[in-house]
């Protein structure tokens, strides 16, 4: 077995890791709003410092910037610039209907792009989150057009 093959077989998953400005607010969005479950956590000095969130077969990690330690200070730049996480789903429209009943606001109504229904939103720090599922509906069709 060559080195490239052994490396390929060793990698099993990629998990987005978001540094967040307020972990309580982020948990409200991801757990209460989107339905993620916290499956791992790191509590330090009585405070949640890091967590692993799971939704179906997808996961992400959150860690709040520490204000008391130099190396974890929040940068002056916007946190979310250039970051998008696309969750591939069986039915993104079912997720859209579910999360909107929980008060989650999407960036715009679901729209077909690249052969998929796309349900876009921003998390509390501005990270772009999309739920997507395959469809045969024509490109750029809005949900209101498809249902009407």
Structural features, described:
The chain is α/β, with parallel strands linked by helices. The chain has a single domain (14-147), classed as Roll (2,3-Dihydroxybiphenyl 1,2-Dioxygenase, domain 1), CATH 3.10.180. The protein is 23% helix and 34% strand. The chain is built from 4 helices and 8 strands, in the order αβαββββαβββα. A hairpin with a 2-residue loop joins strand 6 (111-113) and strand 7.
In angstroms, what is the radius of gyration? 18 Å
Name given to the CATH architecture: Roll
Low-confidence stretches: none
Looking at this structure, what is the CATH superfamily?
2,3-Dihydroxybiphenyl 1,2-Dioxygenase, domain 1
How are the strands ordered across the major sheet? 1-4-3-2
| Separation, N- and C-terminal Cα atoms | 56 Å
Count of folded domains:
1
- Please write the string of helix (H) and strand (E) elements: HEHEEEEHEEEH
Task: Quickly name the level 1 CATH class.
Answer: Alpha Beta
User: Number of helical runs?
Assistant: 4
Please state the average pLDDT score. 90
- Determine the structural class based on helices, strands and strand pairing: alpha/beta
What are its keywords?
single chain, 148 residues, 2,3-Dihydroxybiphenyl 1,2-Dioxygenase, domain 1, 4-stranded mixed beta sheet
Write the layout of secondary structure elements.
Layout: H1 3-10, E1 17-20, H2 23-33, E2 37-44, E3 47-55, E4 58-64, E5 84-88, H3 92-101, E6 111-113, E7 116-122, E8 128-134, H4 143-147
Parallel strand pairs: 1-4, 5-8
Antiparallel strand pairs: 2-3, 3-4, 6-7, 7-8
